[in-house]
Design goal:
Distance between the termini: 80 Å
């Protein structure tokens, strides 16, 4: 009598389930970061009237450091913010990755130093090309954004009324949203520098004072 074998279905890898779990985990991390930013902002507003000599209001920078353990890499005392000072450090760096993650996009850069800057855009940027502007809701948007790979940044602009602008030889990536286009408490987050400096742009904050 011939022996028959039954396929072992338990050995099959359920890639669909794995991908779904990864997406869920990423979404939960994203939601946690937004909640912490909003909570820190509310707390700072609540305690801003206290004047005890040893008291310092909670800042979003403190929350970020407590979450990710970056106190050692950051300056011990806050310094006055200079628009475009940090963003301009991208000049000369190459855009090597554009990654769409759920409801935001990550722009990753590399260059002549050990810095590996990452710009998280909670508000999807507009692409400026020689033939015109391409917005997130337009056909060909993703291709237009990825077309900057592997171009190098030639200039940056950060100022009130213009938001953020990263320029390449063949166009630019622009972040200057309307109030209705901002989905949460953050517009963009630039990090990845070896010295620990980073910047989070929020509605009503630096360069986006009109978005309240």
């Amino acid at each position: 009598m011939a022996a028959t074998s039954t396929p072992n279905t338990h050995t099959k890898t359920d890639t669909g389930t794995a991908n779904m779990c990864a997406a869920t985990a990423s979404h939960r991390i994203r939601t946690c970061r937004r909640w912490c930013a909003a909570a820190a902002q509310r707390l700072s507003q609540t305690v801003s009237g206290l004047t005890a000599p040893s008291f310092r209001p909670c800042r979003i920078e403190d929350v970020h450091c407590r979450m990710f353990g970056q106190y050692d890499a950051m300056p011990s005392e806050p310094s006055a913010y200079a628009p475009n000072a940090l963003l301009s450090r991208l000049v000369g760096f190459r855009l090597y990755s554009v990654q769409f993650v759920l409801d935001y996009v990550q722009l990753r850069f590399d260059g002549p130093t050990e810095d590996m800057p990452v710009l998280n855009c909670d508000v999807l940027p507009v692409v400026q090309t020689p033939s015109g502007r391409i917005g997130p809701r337009q056909v060909g948007y993703a291709d237009a954004l990825c077309r900057f790979i592997p171009s190098r940044v030639v200039a940056t602009i950060e100022e009130r009324g213009r938001g953020l602008r990263i320029e390449f030889d063949q166009g630019a990536i622009c972040l200057h949203p309307e109030a209705d286009d901002v989905p949460g408490p953050e517009i963009a987050l630039l990090s990845g520098f070896k010295d620990g400096h980073w910047m989070c742009w929020r509605p009503g904050g630096q360069s986006f004072e009109g978005l309240i």
